Description:
Layout lengths: L2 H13 L2 E3 L2 H7 L2 E6 L11 E7 L1 H12 L5 H12 L7 E7 L3 E6 L2 E6 L11 H12 L2 E8 L2 E9 L6 H10 L3 E5 L4 H11 L3 E3 L7 H8 L4 E6 L5 H6 L2 E5 L4 H6 L2 E3 L5 H17 L1
Helix pairs in contact: 1-11, 2-11, 3-4, 5-7, 6-11
The structure holds adenosine-5'-diphosphate and magnesium ion.
Family: Belongs to the cation transport ATPase (P-type) (TC 3.A.3) family. Type IB subfamily.
Protein name: P-type Cu(+) transporter
Subcellular location: Cell membrane
Amino acid sequence: ATPTALMVGTGRSAKMGILIKNGEVLEAVNDVTTVVFDKTGTITVGQPAVTDIIGDATQVLTVAAGLEEASEHPLATAIMTKAKTDEITVPAASDFKAIEGKGVEASVDGQTAFVGNDKLLADYQISADLKQRAQQLQDEAKTVVYVGLSAQVIGLIAIQDAPKPTSKEAIAALKSRGLKTVMLTGDNQRVARAIADQVGIDDVIADVLPGDKADHIKTLQQDGKVAFVGDGINDAPALTTADVGIAMGSGTDIAIESGGIVLVKNDLRDVDRALALSKKTFNRIK
Ligand code: ADP
Ligand code: MG
């Protein structure tokens, strides 16, 4: 092996904003058959915004804002931004509890309140009407969170996060290379499928709890080598488990540390470029 070829390859890629951490990555890239993507911040822009509120909008938003003020989740940021725009007075909340992959519970103005998905709501009644409205919104690629107060579901908030403008082209390039594409997300199946359809992703694995992402990678590895592309704290185990971990440069520190390749420009088209470049470099070394 000639270390020079490796240096040249990684040097050129670095100029393109593709950081390749070591030679092992290059070797694994040659045999990748499946590319798996996180959704939020990887395929989508990662700046969710509130689009619809069902129920008494002021009440729903007020309760949700009280709950989300202490949360750092991107959905919480979207809700707080909307509350600010609508000049909502955020109520005091206590006993805040974040429930991973599900939502948030707290005491708002002395009453038990919650905001989150249907996994959180397993014990509560959602009217058929609200459920149907939720499904419509999810089919429009909007993430739905229900808002509850004193054991009653009082409404829902729909939040949209658009795909990055280059995601579709990026997926098409990988597919034309014969690679299988998969989305792996904590979001709801309907929303995930709607976004996958917008960008052309083959398969969707949705409703995945943060701790389970790495296990899904292991399952996919039974069919061949897997590259995983992600940005979040909850993506770190999947990035390390995958044969090739690709982190977004805009991602959390732990994701960047866990990736063997880092895409500085956050452009998904760089996944294909990274694969192409690694192949070229690897063949030169051989
Ligand atoms: P991902 O990063 O893949 O989108 P998460 O595991 O962070 O997934 O979240 C999965 C789901 O859990 C969200 O789509 C939402 O329904 C719910 N959820 C998590 N945190 C919150 C929160 N702070 N407020 C409302 N819903 C939340
Ligand atoms: Mg993400």
